[in-house]
Amino acid sequence: MAEPSLARLSALFFGFLLLLATYSWVPRLHSGFLSGTGVQKTLGPDPKLRVDHSSAKPHHPLDPLTVQEIERVRTILLDHEPGFGSGSATIHSMALDEPDKTLVVKWKKGNRLPSRRAEVLALSVGQSHVIVVDLDSGRVVSDVVNPTSGYPILTMDDLIVASQVALKSIEFNRSVEARGVKLSDLVALPTFTGWFGPEEEGRRILKVQCFTSQDTPNYFMRPIEGLYATVDMDKLEVIKIVDKGMVPIPKAAGTEYRYNVQNKPVHMDRINPISIEQPEGPSFLVEDGHLVKWANWVFHVKADHRAGMIISQATVRDSETGEPRSVMYKGFPSELFVPYMDPGELWYYKSYLDAGEIGLGPAAMPLVPLNDCPRNAYYIDGVFASPDGKAIVQPNMICLFERYAGDVSWRHSEILIPNADIRESRPKVTLVARMATSVGNYDYTFDWEFQTDGLIRVTVAASGMLMVKGTPYENVDDLGDKEDDSGPLISENVIGVVHDHFITFHLDMDIDGPMNNSFVKVHLEKQRVQSGKSPRKSYLKVKKYVAKTEKDAQIKLSLYDPYEFHIVNPNRKSRLGNPAGYRIIPGGNAVSLLDHDDPPQIRGAFSNNQIWVTRYNRSEQFAGGVLVYQSHGDDTLQVWSDRDRSIENNDIVLWYTLGFHHIPCQEDYPVMPTVAASFELKPANFFESNPVIGVAPIFEKDLPVCRPFASS
């Protein structure tokens, strides 16, 4: 693929390209790009660790499409209608069409790989296509047109074209210039429209709002409030301009966040550099680029266009027999839902479904060594397809590293036995798989953390910039009784609009195998003690309920009605007769408070509950549906679950939604400190006893010679 020329882009798009640089097909060719038939290599933090993607081959049934496979899919599609050869069709995403689960589970290393296929989401003449290409036979085996409402993931070309169309409008440009903004400083940012009815029906549209990058790269803090243009992406024309009058543009002062250009003093003592040293090297291995082996864990990890990072076939070794036992077949962030709480004409449509509308993979910039990931990290690239079907490498997109932060795995000191010096403690060392994605203004970091006791902790951390609103007010005292309904004042002329973040995870739990799993609700029920039976008046009793159907497993969490939620294999019993299982442990969470008939909530209906369990169906992967952009909400997790299929003793999928309400404050300006939410998957009668009871402690002789600095 030839290098894109910046000369063809007007200076009008300079600011916009600051945002678009998060995507892989803008000019970052030095980082890793396949150009024609040349050999392409990516450089990790260590120049000796080079990956030659041009000749890479798959080694595992779930390995992502390689550069050669992507190019082969492109070649096959050139001869396929509806118009890939003529250029009238564009590729919006391409990923491995994974083999049937039964084939993957049975596959052993050394066996021939199952047939390799690619799933392509494409658009041609306003029609959505879900295409499956068989790489072995070299032909298209399926092409389904408009299977549901909605359109495929947006591409970089869509975003650039929408901005170009808006900026060709004389009326739009006049509105910008009337506000005293130079076109050379203008950032024209397409925003996703959602679906609200007639205006969006039957055509693909984007709404373009504007910012100024004058004197700052942080244009998000300098919105040009009161103005946007609606662009018809099929006709490539502006169909509506809304200009609500001039609102003061927030000043650039105080918006800078780059370390090398800041001059603001930091009033704190310096923190000395810190690093984990491993004198014998890392304890994990990565085989064939994607298979990770560490301690008692083995799992497959890969980059994905839509989900960002996928963990598959996670197995943990039995502490008694050494047998590898299945825990999870597949886990990934299935969809994000970020609705903003301003119903006005300029903001009502801002309710984003990031995974399905833009994709978490292309928005993943290379991780920053020593800051995003520690010195001992191992990096994995992502390989995706551009809109014209050529292969693009997203370098250093995922990192793996061992973490030790002084935490304790288990401990006990015995004080009641005379003359006994019993002080046993074990350090907690974990393995983390991390991916970070910059979806416009927000940065999300996804961690999958594996512990030797069998626990998996999943954490989502949010940072980046707020999506803010311009206001004429500079101080809360100026507001009087006119306090802005959409959020608090966080800087002069800047409103931080209240919004939510919800992230729904697809967790295909396979406890000791893909079949014969059940969902058990373990209820703590208060019991009243009969008068005269005990000095106590009440106590809690455990009762277990096996969910029979999907509606039985639509769960809203409540502190005042406590449950544990287990996935168990009733056919695998411990020596005591308990079914082997895992439980999901929610962390701090929030629920969507929007009405269920509100259009954003209809599309984001997967946030109606915090826990769902559905019967496994390989077509039900993404909680917002296959085609999300401008979808009507007719292909969501809520729709699938309402079919109320049997889930007892079956192949089932656990879904968990974590979230938080965000009421912005001044500390979130100009870049917000990280806020995180998490959940855990923890063994419940899976092992016969504590699986790490025999792990050795660490002694001074095991470590390099380091001494604390002694001040005189």
From TrEMBL:
Catalytic residues (positions): D354, Y442
Domain Copper amine oxidase catalytic: 275-692
Coiled coil (residue ranges): none
Co-factor(s): Cu cation
One Pfam entry name: Cu_amine_oxidN2
Cofactor binding mode and count: Contains 1 topaquinone per subunit.
Record GO terms (molecular function): copper ion binding; primary methylamine oxidase activity; quinone binding
Name this polypeptide is given: Amine oxidase
Organism expressing this protein natively: Brassica campestris
